[in-house]
Amino acid sequence: MKQDSGYGINRGVVAIASLMGFAIWVPTLCVPPMEHILEEGLLLTHTQAGLLYTIPILMTVILGIPGGLLSDRIGMKRAAGIGITLLAAGSILRATATSGESLIAFTFFYGTGAGLCFPNLPKLVSSRVPRAKVGVATGIYTSVMITGMALAMAISVPLILPLTGGFRGVFIVWSMPVIVAAVVWWTRFRETDGVEAQGKESAGRVPLRRVLRNRNLWLVAIFFLLAIFFFDGWITWAPSLMMMKGATEGMAGLIVSLCLWAGIPTALFIPRFSYRLGLRRPFLWVPALTLALATIGTIYTGISFVWILMVVIGVALTSIIPTILAITTELVSRAEVSTASGLVISVGNVGGIIGPLVGGRIYDLTGSLHQFLLVLIGISAAATLVALRIPETGPGPAAKSG
Length: 402
Fold this sequence. Notes:
The chain is mainly alpha-helical and 402 residues long. It is built from 17 helices and 2 strands. The chain has helices spanning 11-29, 35-42, 46-74, 76-93, 100-117, 120-126, 134-164, 167-173, 176-188, 208-212, 215-244, 249-277, 282-300, 306-331, 337-348, 350-366, 370-387, and strands at residues 3-4, 9-10.
């Protein structure tokens, strides 16, 4: 496949990773702006509505490490291919739900596919892109993934819902990219495309206990847990918060999508800047501290100015994700990347389960999200402290000549 002359990146592999990332999460991100509609139509509680968002994340937690081991055993193409096929089927089945219970059951089916697919993306990129450029490649597919999230958040209610006549139509529309990704994966991806000789080490020969004993890897996983707690808790309940501040239901989703739109150029620029600077850790603790300060600002800001803070939060959040994925590959040997990525994604996504559920529970008990914002401030402060304990893995200013 063709290489990017500026960064030595396999364009075909990054394109496939980008399509997969886009497809995996758009069916999930269409849920937050429709929560009130699903609650009314299927008689769901706020907590149950939050569960619809957290189930796919739960499955990435459960299947992160097993999915990596399955990929080592039967090959990445078959492992991720099974996942994207299950994801497509589950996504379409959600449109047939007639009760809250059936929607939750179909979401578990969809989530199983997400759990098998998503942990394979770092492995796909790290095994086919020069080690020093993994952060840049990760930034590219992350930006496309965030574009899908932003679209799902922004247009599901104001555009797709009126055109399709209900939430079932929205689920069908966002199933289409998943079907396309499944077809492209099975027909275009070749198991041996672009694999470097040094990347042919078998991760299966690496004892799991060696990865589990890596203290620095656990620091990264804990930081990721705190960051994802914030990310998914915020994305899930920020639309409701905007409506509390006076936004209409359509405008609420659009305002919150600014977090994701701001993240698109950030995900492209930050890894390149980090690569040129040769540093990783500042792109963890500075964004974490920024999230705490921006959340404090959200408490006291009206709807007329909150969009500015949405952009700030989006830049901070999307600085963290590709940096974490890059650091994970730099803390371990190439043979350990699959297992290490599975560990970090599994532990990190526990935050994606807890965050929305905590927000939903607080909302059910108090009828407000004010106390949840205080929780997010504490989470961001804790993430800042953890980030300062993670070792610097960047090569330093010498990377400028890379």
